[in-house]
Amino acid sequence: MKSVILRSPAKLNLSLKVLRKRADGYHDLKTIFERINLCDEIMFKPTADGAVRIRCSHPHVPCGPKNLIFRTARLLQEKFRVKAGVEVFLNKRIPVAAGLAGGSSNAATAFKGLNMIWKLKMPLAEMVDLAKEVGSDVPFFLHDCSWALGLSRGDEIHRLDLKTTLWHVLVVPRLKMYSSEVFANLNLQLTKPGDDVNILIRYLKNKNIIRVGRLLSNDLESSILELRSSLRCIRERLLIYKEVEGVSFSGSGPAIFGITQNQQQAEKLQALLSKRYSQVYAVRTL
Ligand code: C5P
Question: CA spacing 20 to 30 A to 184: which of 86, 114, 263, 278?
């Protein structure tokens, strides 16, 4: 088999409800995942030796055991006693440690790519089971769907059959936040008791963008803002624009997005906000 090149998309969370802390230290969630068209590209090339070699276009991405592609490759080599190795080239476009799950998406893409080049014949259900060991966000990306409801650690995926395409302006401040610190700093008593997730899904289905915008919510927001108070003014700035129907952080931040009615508005805001911030994107559902 020759090499394969696969796309590895980012995600946003339109709603992220933290239900409770679990005995294993993780949290039970109820979240809506949206796949977006901000993508890395990954090339996988099989080699005869057992080595896993990763190169990346971005100088700060770790290419050893901390890299989730590396961890996935080692996991599969062990599980299936694979003698072959792999050369990987990761073309990184998704900002790192931003709440966009770029690393988890890369891991899911590695499951797919290595399944092909090492001819493992793994069915989806088996990949999903193994993927949970690599990270809570990995299963979503294995499902190849635009929308999903994530339960349990966020790793129990229920596909949402929605035809809706949304446009967003996405601002990614140049500071890293790690999920572990944001969850550790969360005060569950301060999170809203109600749960609007099912209503939000109904508005998404009806393409009612105004109502979707109003129901965006993320229980991690207070923890994110407490840890990085400078993010408050980006949030406020986004809310100034009349084209923005709602604003929310994605995952554990610091990526923050506004929903717009269409592509034109998202691109207009991207141009405006790019004057002030360095990483601004107009993105849509993929
Ligand atoms: O699963 P993942 O490696 O992405 O999780 C990173 C960290 O985020 C965990 O170690 C945990 O601290 C926190 N987390 C959590 N509950 C979840 C998902 C992540 O507490 N459902």
Answer: 278
